[in-house]
## 1
Amino acid sequence: MGPAVLSAVSAGVAISLTFWYRRQPAASLIVNHGVAFGVGADVPRTAEIGVFIALAVLGLLYWRWQRLRYPLGMMLGGAIANAVSRILFGGVVDYWHVAPYPYVFNAADVAIRLGLVWVLISFWISRGQTRTGTANDAPKVKEL
């Protein structure tokens, strides 16, 4: 239940912040019609089906990989929030800019990136654990 809640909270916070920032008179909003960093802004709208396919794949991974449910839940929540923003506003609404980072991003992007970092660290840690074994983990050799 925990990962699903994390996914819903990630999506809910991101969507709520988008609506809140849209009502702020001094907010500088960017509507990103492309994918990450505005790449693919000139791609036809039918190509956005790829976004929903990516959501389905992420959902499948969430269901399949038990140990990665929390980070995948964060990524899924962020992806859902960006998909909702894309449907409602014709693009993803970005509202945060942190210098010297040159791009504008939103809470959903943060959830996606944190989830991705979590997944990568998990793979790195598990890879290190499989390489470093003890003498007891070694296969038994039959003595002559």
## 2
Amino acid sequence: MAVPNLWRTKEQRYRLQGDVCPACSNTIFPPKRVCPHCHHGAAIPAVTDDRQDYAYVMLFEMPQVTELSAVGDD
């Protein structure tokens, strides 16, 4: 990503700003001028100051190594 584009979109990325398509009501993040689902234009802002943010974490445990094998030069 070019530096001017990074600074231009910095606020919307850190504030998690998105858009809502007025035609199909689909949420779009990051904001775009055209809805990727119905190709309708003129999206409206999706978030207000009274929003709640959610996050989740998925933890996985790797399986135990049962046998070591040599990989590389023959």
## 3
Amino acid sequence: MSIATFPDGKRIATGSVDETIRIWRLADGREMKKWVVKKKVGALLILRDGKQVVSAEGDNPEGSYDETVYWQLWMRDVETGRVVAGPLDGHTNMVLALDISLDGGILVSGSADRTAILWDTKTWQRKVMAPICSQQVMNMIPSSALGTTLPGNRQEIPGLAMMTAPSIISS
């Protein structure tokens, strides 16, 4: 299950293994919208303008011995639930983390396949796919200035933090 907060601070979106994305009003806990999607939802992100929801969707069928499971990213209009971009392909295991650069120009997806993919939010084309560690990518904060694999930590990265200057990252 995944939870994402809207920029207005008044709503949240949830995604679940029950193959739904829901938008909730925080003031009274009322479900405002519910979309049934085709796969389990592993991660969610609300774009900075609050008008689109990015979801990472995929499946690992019960009894499947195939370790390669494809996950896709989808962008939906918050008001209608209509798909406005996607699928974005590239990960071969569950997408665990989504984040967006401070300027909104880069979306980054981190996966249990140990890669991070940087996506251009104007074209929704993949900019960079980088193996960044020897363990799963659990959380991150991107910058449009990024685009190369950085030397350093090669173990599990449970989180990343970026300084105001986009060239400084700590893990």
